[in-house]
Amino acid sequence: MAAPKKGRQGTQGKPGRTLALILIAIVALTGGMFASGHTTPRLGIDLAGGTSITLQAKNEPGQKNAINKTNMDTAVDIMNRRVNGLGVSEAEVQTQGNSNIIVNIPKGTNSEQAREQVGTTAKLYFRPVLVTEVTGADAATPSPSASGSSTASPSASAKESEKATSSSSPSASATSQGRAVTDALKADPTPSGSTGSESAAASPSASASTDPATAKLQAQYTALDCSKKTVRAKAGDGVKAGDPTVACGQNSQGQWQKYILGPAEVEGTDVDKASAVFDTQGAAGWKVTMDFTDKGGKKFASITGKLAQNQSPQNQFAIVLDGEVVSDPYVSQALTGGTAEISGSFDQQEAQDLANMLSYGALPLTFTEASVTTVTAALGGEQLEAGLIAGAIGLALVIIYLVVYYRGLSLIAIASLLVSAVMTYVIMSLLGPTIGFALNLPAVCGAIVAIGITADSFIVFFERIRDEIREGRRMRPAVERAWPRARRTILVSDFVSFLAAAVLFIVTVGKVQGFAFTLGLTTVLDVVVVFFFTKPLMTLLARRKFFAEGHSWSGLDPKRLGVQPPLRRTRRASAPVDTKEA
Predict the structure, then answer these.
(1) E-state strands within 221-270
(2) What does the alpha-carbon distance between residue 525 and residue 531 come to, in Å, rounded to a whole number?
């Protein structure tokens, strides 16, 4: 008799300990929510408002039919990864028509940085420096180049160089300036991979007076005033990677410099990974480190090896991002390690933004902002209010049904629903700052649908218990025998719901993913609540007189369940045995 008793005790387990465990987990999660300062879930653009940007694609000079479905889809993917890399979730990036991309950025953390980065082309080139000098109003004060050199041209005398650097006008005389440009292009340090057909200005026989390409480049450089934002934006616009160009950049003193740069030798596609790090060894500040691909590392080693043989500033290479020089370090030897770094007057945010763009690659197309619209949360607020009213009505109907049909058992179901609601709210609040989850209207719909899924699990368990009681078992054995059958059904049902949510999350984009994510989350929480709260609570209450004896309001009254009392049988008196005959 001892063995069966021990077995029954083992099946019932220790429900009090299980309840204490889940309550401790809820308290810990709630404490973490208050400690993090995020006591409400993050809201999506439809509920919190935000910014809607329309980007229009345009072809690069010399490109034909570049605006196609493949390039547009690639641009959407890169924009999505850039925004998610900044921690701005629920941003919608989708195509509209053949040449437009719509970006909806919700109001909140990093939304402004996302707006700045989302349409940035992020085309990165490493170009050799041919000529550089301070420009505009900054030219009134002599200033070295970013590498520490004040030489405008290696062929110019020291006097001419000083004059070009300290002149209050951005242009020098036509003769000296033309000779400087021509001589610099003659000494073009680019590798043999860049042919003369790619840049006629690099030909040794060219001169400022006879070569139209050189004359045009010299004229652009002379007229370039990098202190003006509109001029900087157009500098080098439309130039191919294989041609020399002019560009602007800001040195460590905050002064604007103008450059003549040779053909690009290394491109952003040759960068494998970029990250922002704090420089603790050199000048304290943030920098961006880059790891090249194998092919890019070989290119970088080749160009730095040739630059190291030249005099300043032609031993410098300019790191050009979207037409602007962000750094122009000099080299004294070939760099063969396959890595490089961009240093300058970066703060942490600027370094992280640059590393983010370089890591996810350049956009295959150039985009311009066609329109920027501020989205208010008024419409979303009205829809949210209507959705919450609908959810409250649905929840009230479920509770009324449980009270009328299951009576006392409804208390267990309501308590389980409250636990599930608290855990859902707390976890959603914590997921906002951790993974960037934002609650939108479809996600609210997913949470409302989950009410029915959770209530269905309780009903399955309660009906299995009733079946056991109809078979004549008492309350406590009925609960333990009903649980294995109900458990299998609940697991299969929740697995199907979770599988549907996972497939929906994978194959869809945008707001529908919010619905799928919330549905999957609440399905997992349903399993947790049923196993760690509903079942242990039912086991404890089965020991109470109210449920154990089948009170009429317990929902487990044998008479209301149609249980028939056992029939009493009378034994016939056996005939007396004749002992004599026996």
Answers:
(1) 245-250, 256-261, 266-267
(2) 10
